[in-house]
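Office hours follow-up: a student asked to see two folded examples consecutively, so here they are.
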Amino acid sequence: MSRHGRLFCYTEHFPDERNRRLTEPAPLVPDAQRYRLHGVERALDTLELLAAAGPGGMTLTELADRISVSKSSAFALLQTLIARGFAADSGTRLTRRYRLGLALAKLGDAAEVQSPLISLAMPVLQSVTDATGLTTRLVVPDGPYAVVTARVDAPGSVRFASYLGQREYPHCTSAGKALLATLPPEQARALALESGLPARTGRTITDPDDLLRDLELSAARGYTIDDEEDSEGVFCVGAAIFDRNGERVAAISGTGLKLNRPTWRMDELGLTIRQAADQITVALGGPPFAERQLTAPPFAGRPPATGSDHG
């Protein structure tokens, strides 16, 4: 994982090609894309951008540029969101800026109540933060990414900014790697490549083969380490959570400043995170790490030699 705050992903849309020649063959559209409504996606992109903008908000011009629409279209979209309470504005006509609306807080509360995973995870995250001083987070898989669904901030003045609903890369964050390490190697490789494997720091693993070796080690010990791979000066440890069917449904992570922290200390914290992930897994009716070691095939798909398995 890591600083968890620098990353913000959104879907970029381009204007409709209304002048497409009639003779040009229509592209094949996957089912997953065929039923997506661009207007709704644009509204959701707008909400994500307003969230990333922070308390300062965004101007109409900034927003229109980011979602690739005209200012009149962006204005109409914003007015619709404002009318429903999902966006808010302030300032004069010349200085007007737009922010998130408070209606989203109601939806967030409802989503948390409806998610047994979050309800089970929050006391565990709080306990780990109290015991270790790490900022802890719960993420769920979303395609190749890990999406933040809950967080407990560590005490003190240092904050690792990370918005709920924010996507993180799978190859350089401990939570993302924890999710990848539960998959067959070729599937893990494909998802990592889908996300692009960008170099976030000089320590980021960008070679797929190197990443698979790191994931194999992580699967054997039951936790992952992001050693300044997503943000310089920041480390993170993560572990996957499983349901009663033995399927991975989420991961938790703990983040702190690297400073002069030795490797053995990160391993020690990794074990703490793995135990916390096991606690949530057992609450969901799933098998803890020790049991999965005995029954599941190792990450690399080879016959078990030491009994190691997914983390």
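And the second, which I mentioned at the end of office hours:
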Amino acid sequence: MLAVPAPEPFDSPDKLFEVKWDGIRAIATVEGGRVRIHTRGMKDISEAFHDVGAALLETVRSDRVVLDGELIALDDAGVPRLHRVMERWHQGKLSRKPVPVSFEVFDILYRDGELLMGEPLHRRKAHLNSTVEQNALIHVCHYEEGEGVALFQTAHELGLEGIVAKDRASVYQPGKRSRHWLKIKHSSSANLVIGGYTFGGGARKELFGSLLLGAYDGTKLHYVGSVGGGFSKRDLEITYSALTQLHRSNSPFASEPKVDRFLFWCDPLLAIQVKYGEFTEKRNLRFPIFSALRPDIDPRDCTLAAISDS
């Protein structure tokens, strides 16, 4: 179940307000002494986050449970950052210094043979609290009843991404973007597809200068701009390694962008998230900054409509 953007924070006695975490949305299934963790695009990431799976086995009080939540990792200031979770994903199980992660659980969909998605949210919250005992890696998300403005202000002061407002009585609608869940963010972000990249210069000449980005309108991939800032050294290395496997001879965009620098075209199979200042009427991004790779996102879900709604 996905949230719809809302323009500003508000108070409502009919809503439960939660922090919007900057991480990877994940579904965890606990059954028969095993845990499987999947992204919303159904990629199995259980091995990459094996420590979370082990922690779930210790803390879940029932044998057959399906939980919904967010995998997060903190930066040096203690703020959740998506790129840190992605770094952990790419480290592999045998990394000597894995990025610490936690699982922020905010919903329960199934327990002991009983489907809970048809129950109202406030009852699912009660089921969740009676099923999950928190530990160092598994946290049941705190929520505020009715007080959205104050939570939004607190989130802003702490450097968090924003909040989510959920109808107390809402049922869980899997795979749907519903107005029963509203997300209110401090800045705009979008998931986009990489269709190519240009050469860099100076210390980055062996990697790339900028990524050429697109979004789908139906089956056509439209060029919306390029991004060259916001990358850490590790981001550059991981992105470049992935893109060199996707080279193609022609542009994947519906209309080939005019780029003066030498470039490589790529199959549009890799999604990233960027933050940006404005999406213009001519369907171009202004002031985009790289946020994170999104291997958990299906590139076909990166659409012009989604940018307009963000």
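Two things to take away from it. The first strand starts at residue 2 and ends at 5. Helices lie at 50-59, 82-91, 121-131, 148-157, 233-243, 304-309.
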